[in-house]
């Protein structure tokens, strides 16, 4: 049992199932950063929710990158770390675009509260980010 826990939580691995599990944890942590900052910027700083969402998403992106390179993914496709982060961020910006689109559609078109919209958008953006990052950045070199 300790070996399984060690494999799932500690050892570097290329197992997609373990990486997806870890990415879920990392995504949860990044989501707390993102969601909390969205709430704080919108409710307490008075920033419009779409602008708050952009700032909070980028804070979550940075959190996600740091955990991803140190804990989730074993293999890295790009040697240059600045180039790697740039691609990671580009994928995240595409995710941000999807996030903003979903937030706008669910809030403005469907009349949902912006926080409910965020809850609905999250799993869609999560899957996009994991699979694109896994196959573009964190797989064996082509």
What's the structural blueprint in terms of helices and strands?
Layout: H1 2-9, H2 16-44, H3 49-72, H4 81-109, H5 114-136
Helix pairs in contact: 2-3, 2-5, 3-4, 4-5
Describe, in plain words, how this protein is organized in 3D.
The structure is a single chain. The chain has five helices and no strands. Helices cover 80% and strands 0% of the residues. The chain has 142 residues and is mainly α. It has one domain (15-136). The protein has helices spanning 2-9, 16-44, 49-72, 81-109, 114-136. The N and C termini lie far apart (36 Å).
Gyration radius from CA atoms, angstroms: 16 Å
Helix share bin: over 70%
Query: How many individual helices?
Result: 5
Rounded mean pLDDT score = 89
Q: Which regions are unreliable across 5 or more consecutive residues at pLDDT < 50? A: none
- Report how far apart the termini are: 36 Å
Classify the secondary structure makeup into a structural class: mainly alpha
Could you say how many structural domains there are in total? 1
Keywords:
single chain; 142 residues; mainly alpha; elongated
What is this entry, summarized?
This protein is mainly α.
């Amino acid at each position: 049992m300790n070996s399984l826990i060690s494999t799932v939580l500690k050892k570097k691995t290329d197992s997609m199932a373990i990486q997806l599990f870890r990415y879920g944890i990392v995504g949860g942590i990044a989501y707390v950063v993102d969601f909390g900052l969205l709430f704080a910027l919108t409710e307490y700083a008075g920033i419009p929710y779409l602008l708050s969402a952009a700032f909070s998403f980028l804070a979550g992106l940075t959190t996600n990158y740091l955990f991803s390179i140190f804990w989730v993914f074993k293999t890295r496709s790009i040697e240059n770390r600045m180039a790697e982060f740039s691609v990671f961020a580009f994928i995240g910006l595409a995710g941000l675009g999807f996030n903003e689109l979903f937030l706008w559609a669910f809030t403005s078109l469907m009349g949902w509260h912006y926080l409910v919209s965020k809850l609905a958008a999250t799993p869609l953006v999560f899957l996009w980010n994991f699979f694109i990052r896994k196959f573009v950045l964190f797989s064996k070199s082509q």
